[in-house]
Amino acid sequence: MRAAGIEVLVLPPDDPLAIASRELNIGFFSRMIRKTPWVRMKMAASPDGVTALPNGASQWITSLEARADGHA
Protein backbone atom coordinates (compact mmCIF):
# COMPACT_ATOMS: atom_id res chain seq x y z
CA MET A 1 0.00 0.00 0.00
CA ARG A 2 2.82 2.35 0.82
CA ALA A 3 4.33 1.71 -2.62
CA ALA A 4 1.03 2.89 -4.08
CA GLY A 5 1.20 6.10 -2.05
CA ILE A 6 -1.35 5.07 0.56
CA GLU A 7 -0.58 6.08 4.13
CA VAL A 8 -0.28 3.05 6.40
CA LEU A 9 -0.54 3.31 10.18
CA VAL A 10 0.38 0.34 12.39
CA LEU A 11 -1.03 0.38 15.90
CA PRO A 12 0.91 -0.94 18.89
CA PRO A 13 -0.36 -4.39 19.98
CA ASP A 14 -1.80 -3.04 23.25
CA ASP A 15 -3.80 -0.25 21.57
CA PRO A 16 -7.56 -0.71 22.24
CA LEU A 17 -8.33 -0.57 18.50
CA ALA A 18 -5.67 -3.20 17.75
CA ILE A 19 -7.10 -5.46 20.46
CA ALA A 20 -10.66 -4.98 19.18
CA SER A 21 -9.65 -5.67 15.58
CA ARG A 22 -7.87 -8.90 16.57
CA GLU A 23 -10.95 -10.06 18.45
CA LEU A 24 -13.19 -9.11 15.53
CA ASN A 25 -11.01 -11.11 13.11
CA ILE A 26 -9.89 -13.91 15.45
CA GLY A 27 -11.09 -16.62 13.06
CA PHE A 28 -8.94 -15.27 10.25
CA PHE A 29 -5.86 -14.80 12.43
CA SER A 30 -6.20 -18.27 13.93
CA ARG A 31 -6.42 -19.84 10.49
CA MET A 32 -3.42 -17.89 9.16
CA ILE A 33 -1.17 -18.34 12.21
CA ARG A 34 -2.16 -21.75 13.61
CA LYS A 35 -3.56 -23.32 10.44
CA THR A 36 -6.62 -24.33 12.43
CA PRO A 37 -10.11 -22.83 12.63
CA TRP A 38 -11.17 -20.80 15.64
CA VAL A 39 -14.02 -22.44 17.52
CA ARG A 40 -15.97 -20.62 20.20
CA MET A 41 -18.48 -22.50 22.29
CA LYS A 42 -20.96 -21.20 24.81
CA MET A 43 -22.54 -23.53 27.35
CA ALA A 44 -25.03 -22.86 30.08
CA ALA A 45 -26.90 -24.93 32.64
CA SER A 46 -29.09 -24.09 35.58
CA PRO A 47 -27.71 -24.67 39.11
CA ASP A 48 -29.35 -28.11 39.14
CA GLY A 49 -27.77 -28.98 35.77
CA VAL A 50 -30.88 -29.00 33.61
CA THR A 51 -32.05 -26.85 30.70
CA ALA A 52 -35.85 -27.27 30.93
CA LEU A 53 -38.59 -27.24 33.52
CA PRO A 54 -39.91 -30.58 34.89
CA ASN A 55 -42.89 -30.35 32.49
CA GLY A 56 -40.50 -30.02 29.52
CA ALA A 57 -41.14 -26.33 28.94
CA SER A 58 -38.13 -24.35 27.83
CA GLN A 59 -36.71 -21.78 30.23
CA TRP A 60 -34.04 -19.15 29.57
CA ILE A 61 -31.05 -19.81 31.80
CA THR A 62 -28.84 -17.01 30.46
CA SER A 63 -29.34 -13.27 30.39
CA LEU A 64 -30.46 -11.34 27.32
CA GLU A 65 -26.94 -9.87 27.07
CA ALA A 66 -25.35 -13.34 27.14
CA ARG A 67 -27.75 -14.62 24.49
CA ALA A 68 -27.01 -11.63 22.24
CA ASP A 69 -23.27 -12.17 22.66
CA GLY A 70 -23.61 -15.85 21.85
CA HIS A 71 -25.38 -15.10 18.57
CA ALA A 72 -23.14 -12.26 17.44
TrEMBL record:
Its EC number is 3.5.4.26. It holds the Pfam family RibD_C. This is Riboflavin biosynthesis ribD domain protein. Residues 37-71 form the Bacterial bifunctional deaminase-reductase C-terminal domain. Gene3D superfamilies: Dihydrofolate Reductase, subunit A (3.40.430.10). It is an enzyme of class 3 (hydrolase). It comes from the Bacteria. Transmembrane segments: none annotated. Keywords: Hydrolase. One of its GO terms (biological process) is riboflavin biosynthetic process. One of its GO terms (molecular function) is 5-amino-6-(5-phosphoribosylamino)uracil reductase activity.
